[in-house]
């Protein structure tokens, strides 16, 4: 295999205002290798790669392709050098077909047939599976990703950059992607994969380059690396990677969902006959590929959506053990009825918080209406803000600094801190650790476990199967708006969960305990 | 490859020191004043110093000018204050012109048709009907927005033309065979607001001053003000917090319209004692700029309204004195000033980096 340097970046520095996204980074990828670019969120991986693909221009430093110094000023320049990037957020036109998306922006005169033939050739060569005439809006996330890769290959790229490609895939889809990448490696292409999943790094790549806070830490051959050693390079110190899972104690039913169905504004049935119970002192994980109804499920329970008639959502009050129906109640009514339920939504700044307000304004959101004296509530909110800041180590210039200006992890701490502060009986979280670094993620797991021990019924919607399997007591798998089994997290396998995420099983609704 | 590095690059600033941003703003105003001086010199050939002396005279030169400036500042401020809650809620109410006219019309109608009522009752009726009609003018687009999510920008804009046409109708009706309407209730002076210490403007200043402070408190220190801010930031967050978004939208536009109504009432009953489609004088639109420049802070609006009116009155005075300098020229002057002041925000938010300089740094 060729050991020649294909792309080299030397002393690259890139600043955004006062943030230094990359500082004197040296980076190289060789011909015919898969290189993993590893680092916590915000460590500058995407920024570094965006300078190769022409999105950003470096403040300092030089780039060499095949030994030649080059200037990459636009994505077009990058294409000419054979560099193609598959971004985290796909850049496809929904109403076009696969083939139309592939040739979009190219100035050649080929017939539809010729284009389809070329796409077919690429697919055969590397083992892709796609229908050139399928519209993008009909595609699954995995298919869209495949299309993005084909698009780049069609333009003759020799160097492929994939930004967190597995973040949106099931284990089965990930395996398929890795098979394709291996085929491309055999063909002499160089690939850079951005990821923060360690086991993937170890299974697919030849070498790993690690970034930490914008600094280049080092490059190691995969054969010499372990999960522990990579974590230490990534975080800079020893980290306990285990997630604790205390046994549920004294479990009582707190939330009973029966025949929950919801039809959205477009008339699509996004939730179809969901049945489950959440119990105190237990974490119920919910798994599923994105967009299969988890969001709507939580929002229905929280009173933000109007489920179909015949659905039933029952809350059981721990004091008197009386049953309260939450169906078709808005969040304020729910609170007024004495229901103690907290919800950490997926969209932190768009739903859970007010970006332009500081911590005080955001603490107010929960109970600003409970007293007639707004100023009194404001005073209480201030005390609460200080408490959350101290308890969760929120890094902010001040409790009045707009939370939008905080880093992702701190934004989430504000939200979680507020929601846990009311000592809820039921706690629902959606993607609570998305985008957070390892430390903050573990802080959040710890907080959830603490709630669990206090007797809260926790519902945890997650995307990382490893975490779901380690943290939950039971896992409900959702697939296309339906429930596809409730599994015992202690005994089930990742493959089982992955399979149920993509394919409805015969025993779909049955309980597997 | 024969490519050069890009020459200039635009970079977003993370933060900027408060004093620095005000320095930028001051510099941009200074720059605008220079450009305006050059512009005026080019047209009528008077020296820059003369330009500003003339403008100062036009705005503050004698007590008539001075009172005029104060009144129009109060009027502009009043409408900007009315817009503040709507804009803070990201409800783009560009129908203030129509809402003011609605209030002016209601006032005039009561003045004309109920002129025989005892004075206190007449005043109250004029005031209340002005507020009600203006609030309705604001309410209609709000209901459509809340119920069917109809775009408020076009709707409020169109409501302006409806108001203008209705006012035109009554204008022509009351004018009869005369060439212009003249004063309403010329003989009886029924419904004319009393003067304070002989000043027609004092009451207006007082009312608008109080409104400005009240609105500031309402937006910053009350539950409803908090709701407005949350809805403006994100409707989803508002729903998540259990707010009734529709109710907030409707309530806020009622308030916005009502304050416009006060402006219409004060203009007709206190100042003009007459009505025409120009009773709002385009201030319904100018106030949008004032509200934005003040970032919806009603206290800051005081200064900005004064500044805009100064420019307007000042250039009008040049228009009066020099034939070559017409109304359009005075609008251009205001345009130049706004261009610099608004353009300055770009430099506050971004900085430019020149390649040659960067190389020199190394
Ligand atoms: N366009 C941008 N404007 C300002 N800051 C940015 C921009 N893009 C990235 N950053 C900042 O640069 C740092 C590195 O970001 P990024 O490259 O996206 O990290 P990663 O991909 O490793 O998660 C972060 O602190 C991020 O907030
Ligand atoms: Mg990234």
CATH topology of the largest domain in chain A: Rossmann fold
Distance between the terminal alpha carbons of chain B, to the nearest Å?
Answer: 25 Å
What string, H for helix and E for strand, traces the elements of chain B in order?
A: EHHHHHHHHHHHHHEH
Largest sheet of chain B: 2 strands, antiparallel
Approximate helicity band of chain A: 25-40%
CATH topology of the largest domain in chain B: ABC transporter involved in vitamin B12 uptake, BtuC
Large-scale geometry of chain A: globular
Provide the residue-averaged pLDDT of chain A: 91
Largest interface, and how many residues on either side? A-B, 40 and 29 residues
CATH arch. level architecture of the largest domain in chain A? 3-Layer(aba) Sandwich
Poorly predicted residue ranges of chain B: 357-362
Oligomer: heterodimer
Number of domains of chain B: 2
Number of helices of chain B: 14
Keywords summarizing the entry:
heterodimer; A: 513 residues; alpha/beta; Rossmann fold; 3 domains; 6-stranded mixed sheet; 20 strands; B: 362 residues; mainly alpha; ABC transporter involved in vitamin B12 uptake, BtuC; 2 domains; two-stranded antiparallel ribbon; 14 helices; globular; disordered C terminus; binds adenosine-5'-diphosphate; binds magnesium ion
